[in-house]
Amino acid sequence: QTQGVTDSEVIIGSNQDMSGPFAAFGAPAITAANLYFDEVNAAGGVHGRQIRLVVEDHAYQMPKAMSGLNKLVNSDKVFAMLLSLGTPMNIASFPLLENKGVPNINPLTAARQMIDPPSPIKFAGTSSYYDQMLTAVEYMKTEQGRTNVCAMYIPSDFGIEIQEGAVDAAEKLGIPFLAETKHKPDELDFVGSLTLLKSEGCDLIAVALGVRQVITAVATAKKIGWDDVKFLGASASFHTAIAKVPGGVTEGFYAAAGWSDLEARLGEPEVGAWVKKYSDATGEALPGTGALLGHSAAVLLVKALEAAGPDLTSEGFIAAMEGLSYEDKIANNTVDFSADDHQAADAIVISRVEGGSWAEVARID
Amino acid sequence: MSEPILRVDNLESYYGPVMAIRGVSVEVHEGQIVTVLGANGAGKTTLLKTISGIMDPEKGTIHLEGESIQGMEPDQIVRRGVIHVPEGREVFPLLSVEENLLMGAYTRNDKAGVRNDLEMVYGYFPILKDKARQAAGTLSGGQQQMLAIGRGLLAKPKVMLLDEPSLGLSPLLVKEIFTIIKRLNTEQGVTMMLVEQNAKVALDTAHHGYVMEIGRIVMNDKAPVLAASKDIQEFYLGVQEAGERTQKRWKKRKTWR
Amino acid sequence: MRIIFKKSYDADIGLFKHGFHAFWYMLLLVIAIALPYLVGEFLLGEFTSMLIWAVAGMGLMLLVGHTGQASLGHAAFLAVGAYTNVLFMENWGLPFLLSMPLAGLCAAFAGMLIAIPTTKLHGIYLAIATMAIGILSESIIVILEPWTGGVSGIFAPDIELFGISFNRYANITGMYWLYLAITVLILIGYRNILRSPLGRSFAAVRDSEISAQAMGVNIARTRTLAFAISCGITGVAGAMMGHFSGVFNNETFNIVISITLLLMIVVGGIGFIQGAFMGAIVIVFLPQAISFVRDIINGMTGGSSMTIPGLESGVFGAILVAVILFEPNGLWGRWLKIRTYFELFPFYRRDMFRRQKSYLKTERMR
Amino acid sequence: MDALQLLVSGLANGCVYGLIAMGFVLIYKATEAVNFAQGDMMMLGAFVALGLTNEHYAHLPFVVAVPLTILIMAAVGYLMDAVLLRRTFGQSQIAVVILTIAIGFVFRFVAGVIWGHEPQSLESPLAGRDIRFGGVVLGLDEVFVIVVTIALTVGMYFFFARTKMGVAMQASSQNQMAAYYMGIPVKRVHSLVWALSGAVAAIAGILFASKGSIDPATGFLGIKAFAAAVIGGLGSLPGALLGGIIIGLVEPFSARYLGGDLARLMPYLILVLILVFRPHGILSQVQAKKV
Amino acid sequence: MSLLELENVTLKFGGVTAVDDVSFAVEEGEVFALVGPNGAGKSTIFNLISRIYDPFAGDIRFQGQSLLDRQPYEIAGLGIARTFQNIELFEQASVLQNLLVGRHKHRKSNPVGEMFFTPFVRREEKRHRKAVEEVIDFLDLQPYREKFIAGLPYGVRKVVEMGRALAIEPKLLLLDEPASGLSVEETQDVAFWIEDIKKLMGITVLMVEHDMSLVSAVSDRVMALADGRMLAIGTPEEVQRDPKVIEAYIGSDDAEDAA
Ligand SMILES: Nc1ncnc2c1ncn2[C@@H]1O[C@H](COP(=O)(O)OP(=O)(O)OP(=O)(O)O)[C@@H](O)[C@H]1O
Ligand SMILES: Nc1ncnc2c1ncn2[C@@H]1O[C@H](COP(=O)(O)OP(=O)(O)OP(=O)(O)O)[C@@H](O)[C@H]1O
Ligand SMILES: [Mg+2]
Ligand SMILES: [Mg+2]
User: Fold this and answer.
1) What is the CA(E157)–ligand 3 centre distance, in A?
2) Is residue C364 part of a domain?
3) If you count Cβ atoms within 10 Å of the first and of the last residue's Cβ in chain B, which end, N or C, has fewer?
4) Residues 324..353 of C with a Cβ closer than 8 Å to B: which?
5) In-domain check, residue C134
6) Number of domains observed in the structure of chain C
7) Beta partners for A56?
């Protein structure tokens, strides 16, 4: 008997940040996933099984994450993990998950380690930060004529991956990587760093900062009259809040991600329907990035459960995952797994803030 | 006899499980000086603290001018005219001497009167005037004691509770303090409750006296009567037969604990 | 009330206050040893985690509770312990039995380095200075990437002892027993310190530096020593934590952990060894209990619909508020009162435990 | 030119720190407690203002929302003390520290539930308007921050030094029992100062939100502000401003001229250094005990 | 050579000269009393001896060696113990533990041994307990042995402080107002104790006291101070008869009374 599966129920776990520094991603992701599961459950579930999502909040703290993991795997005995947030938390969970054969699906981090080194239980949602940067910097050079690359980042796994992406991209393109500044997650003053980068002559800055910090940094650059610089973020900066800052402060900010923004696609029937459902349930006008990712992951899980058939085992489920291939209308990308490709959507979408909304400017597959 | 201004009935106070005063009843009549004598740990301080609201009594009643005040917050009791000059000084160490004194007048609103009384206190204790700007915490022990007394005077109380006012004062100042106490009592009619180790002076000054032992009142009489009592003489006034002192290597214990 | 007749000085000097204590603590130890046969894998994992927190808590308790020095940066010493332990094992091939004490020593040394320049700091000033050091250490871990693996962190190898391999997932029972043994050893050492001149000089420094000095206690040396021992114990806890989580990086030991540690010992009961254990129980089991209650409520109200984000930490915070309002002396302080109540039975008074009004004086006079 | 720009915006940032630090100092000065929820109170103030002004919420005019926010936060501060902290009166300070930390958890939770975890921006008339002197750009928000902070510091300083209530607040922090002996209603005085610091937190929150966006984790800024208060000498109002400005200036200058890891660590290095050489802050409020 | 010598010691606080060019010597085996009005600088002299303050000028010698190059914590080791005017006990500890801290300078064990509580440490502990027990007997502190300081009455604390100083087994004992806050009877106890300390234990005593009856009963020599300066020095009778002392300190009508 596979753990977490009964005739009437399948239990899914999520080790989440619901109240810590990344709650802005975690909380809406869970909301969206639950919305979708409720819908599926109301329609009778998957092969007669109700999906139950158990969420543990680790607030981005390692010891709490370990306790949560212990509870989910050893007490709740979940069948699979979904949307777990945090690179170190995910990495630390792999030994236990591998030991128990629990698949880790679409963690809320785009770190390379989510599928590297490969393992049958590891599945990632979208392209990694590193790939996003590699592609986006090339785009910025060829299409925008940017030739002096710089970086502002938090020296965390997330920040360093983005910085490495930018450095490697510059090297590959034969343009200089001029300068970089490092920041603390609670830093909110970028005048010094920006004047430094300005004096170095940067014209493209790869940013790996918190959402709130990105807004402040871009606004500060405008304020000190530095208009001829472009900021480029990865998927962690591809956030509705950045586009929605009043006064057009963040106009012209670029972000690379594995999906495209909803706002421009509200006309599409699937998108419109989902957005309405989400708004009705939460009262938020427009679902944010977290919600979008949560929804996509939930859809993916349900599709895999369906494909795995009524006789649910880990092996069967993993095989079913590896056979999945479909269009995700909401995220606007193609999910495509195989035995040696555990990354769902490989596309990289580059978007820009225009008139208070994200606009897709390029898509590289 | 008229209703006493302060009447304590059957009071009990505890520190956690420790019973510090056990059914104490005390009467203080308006215009009187009442002294409470007793050895170390008899519960004198506890009694005064309970009256001034710093401690909550477990049982019993306290009436001030016929009104029950037990269990009130201390600041309300001060507003009714009871000021407590505590044992061990308790000054505000980082405030200046003058600020300390003015805090004594916290409940008063007559600026001119406060100024006047401030000068009066400076008159009693000129050293405080010299050190008016110095932080109270850096005063010498005796100076802090003067400050604590002066601060109490500035409140212009109806009833003053004095806990060992002569602690650490020079002999000259002890005399002065008691002169002041007497003067306040006769000239301004301030009622006093006085706890003192220096039983001789206390009985000289007071009209009435109580003796406490292990939380109980064991004697209670007019001050001169007490002063004449043999027990009091032996244990509180230190009167002894001549010559005994140098030989005596043992001593009588007045109580067992 | 139980009255203890002491017949020799040993009665005061002994490890336990009297036979009853010895009996109860031995019983507790027996239960602790038998625990793997009583509970399942999940609970055993949580108990192991509780032991780690208790050891870390003892480290901090020694400093805060018994020496009166607040630290809000103890996660840094957890980190020192965790990293050096793994480095000794990986780079020098030392066995755990050597690497763990060495890691403790390294943490103790780090603590000493911090204590020496800060011996003049007190109370909140020391707390904020150590907090700054805690924040700095997070960055230092990143800077020392060649050793620490930087932000990607390092993996702790399995503990090998007498041919048995201890792994959090493969052999949690073994790990639990190993950690229990370490905890008991540290506990005994701690108790020994408290009943010897060292412990008394700690208490002296806590209560009055001026008179401690007049008694011939070298304040700077005593405080440095207290820091070193405290950080050493915490470092051992760090080494334990490293093996328990298997992998860790700079973010594992952030300021929130330091705050949690302090919170833990205060809730447990500051100034009591037992307080560290009480606190660890709260820190480990309360969130889990909240989760279970939440799951049950969710189950009753029809499954997994809307979860309120952060509800757990909100409830956790609220319960902590309640605990401190209810008993500022912590859970162990409350337990002591309850015990007195029963010992005095039936001679208790109803409101014997009502707090008598208490008042504070400034700590700005040093 | 760079340096001038850095100076000006460092000053403005420093004033925000100083303003939050002032909240710490007020409470410390009057109760000797350290309010670790001060940063979260600031966050709450910012969100209340946002909830009152923003189009998506109550959409009140800014001039109405500001005094309302200050009032609401003063009430929050007052209630925090009257309902919760008062119960720990006379208990060790560390209990209060832990209590406020726990209250901070609850505040963040409440803010998250009401306003969500996504960053939002206050629709403030101060935001995004610049004043230019030559090459130096000064945001209207920054000018406001500097002016308000200095005015508040001076005002509070005189309140504590000159008024009876101010001195009574200091007295009740130095010796609670003696303060009661003098007839000072110590508990009420404490609640008052908590209300005051709630109001200051509201002002800090509004000004901060005008400078950027906010989310429930904004309160962590309180840690840096607390460092500022300690650098200045906890308990000293000018010290809070001084400490705030030191941190405010160190940040941009080290980022500009040192760069790299060192710049990131600078504020905390400075804190440790200052404490090593002046153990109780620059304007030390600690006195040697006389025995 | 005198046991303790102060030579032209001066100390200023800001503008105030608390101790002004004071010189005196305490001989081995005597009880020496310092008297003087409040704020005369008596406690400050104690603080100078225990190295809490650095003098502006002058020298302080103990057994011929200058104390000025000693750290405050080394003073006890040299054999100087003291009590404090305002009582500085370890509040959160029992009487017994307080006294045991007094044994700190006699400690021979090291922290590592203490962590393992070796038999040596245990033997040492017993030795300290024995010594402390003698002090407890001497001062009649038995009823309070296990009591926490925080709940003790003022007078008992004074005695505990004295006991803690005695546990050091000093050569010189500094007592700052040992009888303040004590009743007449308790003051008599103190007088007996001081006599015993001098005669039986052979400890030299330097004492500050306002109770002139105690001063004249126990002290061999008295020095009167005022405003930081010496007024008079001599036997208790001589000093109490000194008109300057009477005017500044005792008050006229009390002079014969106290003598
Ligand atoms: N904080 C406390 N905790 C526990 N017990 C206390 C506390 N304070 C006082 N006591 C006890 O209460 C009793 C009465 O103490 P109190 O201070 O009232 O005595 P007192 O008569 O004023 O003595 P003294 O003359 O020394 O000032 C004493 O036995 C003392 O041990
Ligand atoms: N830290 C200080 N700052 C300023 N003045 C001080 C300080 N310490 C002591 N003084 C002053 O020095 C003088 C001497 O004080 P000291 O405590 O030695 O007096 P004392 O003789 O012990 O008096 P008492 O009998 O009242 O205890 C006093 O006037 C006091 O105000
Ligand atoms: Mg008393
Ligand atoms: Mg003195």
Assistant:
1) 11
2) no
3) N
4) 340, 344, 349, 351-353
5) yes
6) 2
7) A15
Q: Hey, which chains touch D, using 3+ CB pairs under 8 Å?
A: A, B, C, E
For CATH 3.40.50.300, the residue range(s) in chain E are: 1-79+170-259
Instruction: Say if C167 falls within a structural domain.
Output: yes
Treating both helix axes as pointing N-terminal to C-terminal, what angle do B111-124 and B97-104 enclose, rounded to 10 degrees?
120
- The set of residues, in sequence order, having a beta carbon less than 8 Å from that of C30 and lying 6+ positions away, is none
Distance of CA E48 to the CA centre of its chain: 13
- E101 in the Ramachandran plot: left (φ > 0), alpha (ψ -120 to 50) or beta? alpha
Range of the domain at C111: 40-354
The confidence band for C212, taking pLDDT boundaries of 50, 70 and 90, is very high
CB within 8 Å: E39 and B238: no
CA-to-CA dists, residue D274 to C110, C117, D283, angstroms: 20, 11, 11
Q: Tens of pLDDT along A90-129?
A: 988 998 899 889 999 999 988 888 888 899 999 998 888 9
Q: Does domain B6-256 match CATH 3.40.50.300?
A: yes
Provide the pairing of β-strand E57-62 with E4-13.
antiparallel
- Per CB-CB distance under 8 Å, the chain C contacts of A155 are 139, 142, 150-151
Domain boundaries, chain D: 14-218
What are the CA-CA distances from residue A106 to residues A24, A38, A119, E137 (Å)? 17, 19, 14, 76
Res B148: pLDDT? 96
| Element containing residue C311 per DSSP (H, E) | helix C311-326
Q: What is the DSSP string of E152-194?
A: S-HHHHHHHHHHHHHHT--SEEEEESTTTT--HHHHHHHHHHH
The number of the ligand 1 atom at minimal distance from the alpha carbon of B21 is 14
Going through chain A in order, the beta strands assigned E by DSSP cover 9-16, 50-57, 80-82, 104-105, 149-153, 177-182, 204-208, 230-233, 254-257, 325-328, 333-336, 348-354, 357-364
pTM for this model (two decimals): 0.93
The answer, yes or no, to whether ipTM is higher than 0.95 is no
Q: Strand order in A50-57's β-sheet? A: A50-57, A9-16, A80-82, A104-105
SS3 content of chain E, % helix, strand, coil (to 5): 45, 25, 30
- Torsion angles phi and psi, residue E70, rounded to 5: -105, 150
pLDDT of amino acid C168: 77
Q: Which two tokens stand for residue B192?
A: 């006093």
Nearest to A225 by CA among D15, D211, D2: D2
**How confident is residue E259, by pLDDT bands cut at 50, 70 and 90?**
very low
Identify whether D119 is preceded by a cis peptide bond (ω within 30 of 0).
no
Domain E1-79+170-259 has CATH 3.40.50.300: yes
Q: Hey, what amino acid is at A294? A: G
